[in-house]
Each structure stands twice: as structure tokens, then as C-alpha cells.
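Quick one: structure for this chain?
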Amino acid sequence: MNAFIEKSIGRKLLLAVGLPSAVIAGAGLLWLRAETAHLSPHLAEAVLAAVAVLALAMSAAHFLAVRLLVERPLRSLAAGMRRAEEGDFLFRMPVASRDELGQLAERYNAMLAAITDLHALRLDDARAMDFLQREVALKRELEAQHRLLDDTNRRLEARLNELTLLHDLGRTLASTLRLDELLRYVVDHLGQALGYERFVIFLAEGSGDLVAAESYGVRAEITGTRLPPGEGVAQAAAVSRELVLVRDTARDSRLQGSRVADSQGSLVALPMLYKGECVGVLDLFRPVLDGFSAEELQLLQSVASQAAMAISHARLLEHALGSEQAAAGG
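Got it. Here's what it folds into:
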């Protein structure tokens, strides 16, 4: 019984008003019965019947009034609240009166309108944030593409410069067959065009020695010095016919007392090979650890190959001229 009453405010109002009314009506009936019983039994019964009918009529009228004026609007409010709870924020309560229930409906509608506006703003913010995220992602992608394009352009430009330098070197070396001029061209090319600060050109002799024929950035007295077989990094490159790279000269015992690598840094020795024979070695030093990149080593090998061919041709010419002079003198 308590649960049945607690679920409806209309029932609570009926109970709150009807119970005292029933008590008062019962007391009044008992009083009327006591007052009219000595007058006429039929009159008392008629009065009691009339009062009972009146009480029933008032109860019915009170029930209908509570049902129509209180319970139905409250049920309408509850139904609207359930729709809002389910996510239907566009629903609006019908306002049928100007009393407290009507004011409650109006305020509830205003609250729903505010929630709808807030939801719309959230949707707009979400769309704006999504658009901003897409724009940022696109900007990052474009920046990555630009960086990739810039890196590609730099690599292509570096490669073009390398090819241009190699072409100029080959053309210059082909323009003369004098060995001293060839060596000077190689020195100028490596020192000025490519920017190497310290290097020595060793030429191989029949005895197996390597002779410092030209140098750049080192003391002049190094020219003419000899490296016998088994000494130094340059001899190791000449014997192996392969590039020898020393990333830290301070840790290589072969460079102790070297006048080229006289401080800590990195050194590369490139054999100048022509038809399988080593005609000399390019010995380059940089005063930084691991100072030669893979691309740079490829370029230096190309320079060494061109220099080897030109030096071989110049030596053949010198040998031929020497033979002619010897025959003429004999």
C-alpha cells in the first residue's frame, strides 16, 4: 500500500486531503445521528444517506480535480524528462497553465533549449577540432613532402656538382701528358674545387716504395719522402688495392710519427688503380673524427680512378721519350 501511494503525487494529495475529510465527515455523521435519533429514526437515516452521498460526490470531484489539474501535468513532465534522458533534447513541454506546474514546464523547456544550444556548440567545436586536426595533419604532410623535396634537390645538386667536377677534372687531365702538370691539376682540384685541406699524392715505384710526389696543406719537406713496403696506411691501401679508412687516427699505430695525420682526426687512403695496377695512393686527412661520408668516398674513388689513368699515360709517354732520347744518344 505504501509503494502504491509513494509512486503518485496525486494519490498523496488525495490521501492528505481525503483522510482528514473522511475523519471529519465521520465525526459529523456520528454527531448528526446522535442529534436526530430522538426526533425520527427515518429522518436520521435520510440525513445520513444525504451526507454519505455528498461525501462520495465531493471525493469524486476531488479525485477528478487532482487527476486533471495535478497528476496529468506531472505525468506529462515526467514523460518529457524521460525523453530528454533518452537523448531527445528537441522535445518541448506543452505549457497549459500559468501556475507553478506551468512555470516548471517553461523552465524545463528553457533548460532543454540551453542543453540543445550547448550540444550544438559541442558539435560545432568537434567539427572545428576535427577540421583543425585534418589541417594540421595536412600541414605536417606538406612539410614532410617539402623536406623530402629539399633533401632530394640537395642530393641532386650535390650529385650534379660532383659530376661537373669529375668532368672538369677529366677534361683537364686529358689536356696534358706532363706528369708534374697532372699532379698539380689533381692538387688544385682536390684542394680548391673540393675543399680538402690536407692531403698527399704518393706515386708507386718499381721497388715497391711510395714516394710523396705532391702535397697540399702540409709542410713542403714531405715531398720526396718515401714509404717502404709495410709502413703506413698508404702502403696498406697500395698492397690491398682497396680503400683504407681510419676513423680515429689516434688509435691506429700505423700513423705514429705521420706528418700528414699529425693530430687526432680521420684519414682515408685511396689506391689509384689502372688496369689492375696501383700507380699511387691519395692520402687525405681531416682533423675531425669519422670525417668522411659514404658519398664523399665514392667521389674520391672516382677522382682516384681518373688520376690513375692520366698518371699512367703520362708515365708511358715519359718512358717512351726517355727511350727515344737514349737511342738517339747511343
